[in-house]
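A reminder from the course coordinator: this example appears on the midterm review sheet, so study it carefully.

Given structure:
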């Protein structure tokens, strides 16, 4: 599970924050006035992954928006990256 405490909103306001979790890569960065959150499958980095493999969602650039972004990341993982038996 991706934890909100490990993602600094102040960092996201200045630089893209990237990470990975069990086959899913993610990136949070500051847009105009929002957090742009992107997920895509491993193995490639953001720049080397085709846009059609990326899923993007925007959230408010607030602590609450960051919490919603992390919740969405975990939902995306559960929906698209967990192998169903």
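Designed residues:
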């Amino acid at each position: 599970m991706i934890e909100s405490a490990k993602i600094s909103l102040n960092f996201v306001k200045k630089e893209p924050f990237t990470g990975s979790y069990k086959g899913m890569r993610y990136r949070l960065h500051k847009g105009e006035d929002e957090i742009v959150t992107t997920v895509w499958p491993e193995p490639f980095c953001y720049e080397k992954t085709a846009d059609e493999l990326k899923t993007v969602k925007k959230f408010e650039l607030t602590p609450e928006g960051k919490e919603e972004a992390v919740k969405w990341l975990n939902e995306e993982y559960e929906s698209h990256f967990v192998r169903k038996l």
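The chain has one domain: 4-81. The two ends are 19 Å apart (CA to CA).
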